[in-house]
User: What shape does this take?
Amino acid sequence: MTRALRLLAAFVLVYLLIWPLLMLVRGAFTGSPFMPSAHWTLDGFGTVLGDARLGRNVGASLLLSVGIAIGSVALATGFAVVRTRANARLGRLVTPMMVLIAATPTLFYAISWAMLANPNAGIIPRLLAGAGLGGVAQLFNAFSWPGLISVGVLKVTGFAYLFLIGPVGAADRSQEDAAVIAGATRVGAFLDITIPLLAPAFFAVLMLLIIFGIQVYDLPAVLGMPVGIETLSLRVNDYLVGTGTPDWAAANAISVLAMLLVAGLVLVQTAALRGKSHVTMGGKAAPVRAGRRQRYIWLVDLGILTFAGVALVAPAAQFVIGSFQPFFGLYGVWTLRNYATVLSDPVGIGALQTTLVTALVGAPVTVLAGFFMAYAVARTPASLLGVLARIGSWVPATAPGIVLSVALLSTYLATPLLRELFGTPWLMVLALGVGATPIAVRAAEGMIAQVSPELEDVAFICGASRAAAAMGIVARLCAPSLIGAWLMIALWMAGALDVPLLLQSNNSQTVATYAFGLLNAGEIGKAAAVFLFYLLLLGVVVALLAAAGALAGRIVARQRLHVMQMAAG
Amino acid sequence: MGGSIGITIAHLDKRYGAVPVLRDVSLGVRPGSFVALLGPSGCGKTTLLRAIAGLEQPDGGSIHIGDRAVVDVSRGVMVPPQARRLGMVFQHYALWPHMTVWQNIAYPLRKQGFARAEWPARITAMAEVVGLAGILDRRPAQLSGGQQQRVALARALVSEPAVLLLDEPLSNLDANLRGQLRRELRQIHDRQGTTTILVTHDQEEAATLADVIAVIDRGVIVQVGPPAAILDRPASRFVATFVGYDNFIPVHVAGRDGCAARVRLASGAHLTLPADAGHPPPGCVATLAARSERIVLAACTAAHDGENWLRGRVVRVQSLGRWLETTVDCGGVAILVRSQAPAAMVGEAVALRLPGDTAILAEGAGG
Assistant: This one.
């Protein structure tokens, strides 16, 4: 890569990923990004710190995030242990189930539970009431603190499991065996030995999920806001759209405070893990091998089935059913009206188009950018690009989505050419790309770590440049995982509500912002319909792409055969 | 300490899916003895040790520790590892890095309900035995490989187990330390008297430490006996190869005279070798197994025309560091001879004399 290209890449990294957060801090002292000549003021911080609701908002954010983190880590640990040690019949279903749960956009998961456990018309309270358990039915209310945290736990368990399955599976089984030989039970050995040994992994995941809980917008927006639960992320939005005049200084100021809270948590995590050695002594860890099937393993199978039913099947089924109901709660009558209405609404069509563009253009570009950033971090960590890529891959993750939305808006409005794109789908695609960059980099990091640098060294020796080796060897080897990351990010972009929230206009809605608008208008069935139709659309496009890829592969293979036959004959 | 208890393994079977790992394994271990399970990687020796420990569940057979059945598949008996009163040293030690040396050694005492007041005396005494005094407050990461091995041994012995299981405990150490710890391990065994089972693929280690060696091949115990018997009288070509025999010469057993057997080579040469009741009877086709470093190589003179000398011609001489390996063609059979000094040149006619420990293997005792 030439020096000019490296500088250009460094500039793009700084502008897209780091600069917005600096603009956010500036905005906290200057106010609206729409005002060309801002003056410096502390009014924003004055408003936020003088707001009697601030303490409540911080408390709500912490309660939500800690509750979700603890609950999901506990469940995920249980499932990771089941997957790696229990030898249950349904054990193989656990990981795919968790991937599906993790890949489901939070907004639509929340909408589904808003229907399932709706105190007025939800199917769960209805079934319980029908069974004469009216008192119990009252407990199954998604619009409450227990409901909000429970739905959050179910959703986030997918992520927590995917983070924990690696460390739990790779834990040196001989460490536990040694404890069992010494007299401990299997459970005792896991608690005495494996849990303390995996403390860094557990702590890291807990902190990550607490940060997620502080940042999350869609979950409390759907299930908390209607019953007066207001987190920090909701308050940011409230300063901008809750009153007649947007208070940009206050929104920026509370965003900065939220980021400081997150940064503080990251520092706590770093300090707590510094200098601790929890590595196992053996150079070669004994693989974890599930033992013989135990007598009561059916209880574990039942647990897997129950969780799959509650966390995956029920919300999905409710979502589909809800999209075919003329009115939410009217069971037994089916209609396609929700789909027809959405597809006859130009804003709805626009939302589908924009989201499809993000999936087909924004998501692959983000995945590739994330791959190159992760590559720079892994292979040239001390270079300018490596350092900027590492910082850039974390900065958007420290800002809650709604905060990032404020930051991106401030940045794009202050940039001459980009300003003209405001209100078009392209700015939305750019913002979603920035928001998804941390996910893309994290996904690529894992893939690149599995490719031995020696494979590239051989390519260098054969005359390949670094870029050629990165694309021809590493990216090629990571291709299946990169395609998986593309689909995951495409789904994330379709469901992200907070990042595009402030950038939307009638011409640049996404499926998420459009569905959220429908939900707020009480059109819950249409909200479900638009997302399901989008999934159908995406599925068709992916199938067409896969077919085209297979056809192209066959044509290339045939041509290669033809060339070989010509050479031979 | 320790209490001497024997182990009886009968008809043990273990499969991983459809792959048999142990096949009808039977073995008796006398109280207080030191038994080595010797075999190449993947032969099933560690699986057998783990089955004794209770870390693997056999598919058939039984294991008795003393009079107590800890495994009896036909009766559904499977005593969990923590209830078998064992000590075990793992190949990679499996020390718990979040605990100090003291805490590592104290763990079995805690779990097996020893009175807390007894711990200090037991731990310090065991630390003395294995040479760990003065480093009890350190963590495993602060110890050398040899010290880690001693901690693992102390942890295994501190609760005075009925049986000590050692899973290749010396394989991670350098040659000097391995030799030193090997001697110490044997001394500790002699002092404690604990019945001990060692898994190893190192014939020298097995011969140095064990009273009895059981050689395992593909899940089957192929030979059991004292080290001298295994090393000098291998029962099969597999065992012979594994314990260092590197010349295999096809012969015909021509006759038997008391403790001597007369064999004929393909070249027509005759040899008379020591034989016992287990050797193949006259008329059989057999294989001679000889160690190359024990074969005598000499220049061809009239003095070497007598009994037990073979004639041949040197076809290759290769340096192997401090050894010279000479390949001699004896009537179409290539025989390797190792010597420390140059003994002959390529093309030279030489005489060979096979050593007294040359084994006569029955045809079909391959493997």
In short: Chain A has one domain: 13-29+44-282+301-568. Residues 13-29+44-282+301-568 of chain A form a domain with the MetI-like fold fold (CATH 1.10.3720.10). The CA atoms of residues 125 and 138 of chain A lie 7 Å apart. Chain A has a mean pLDDT of 84.
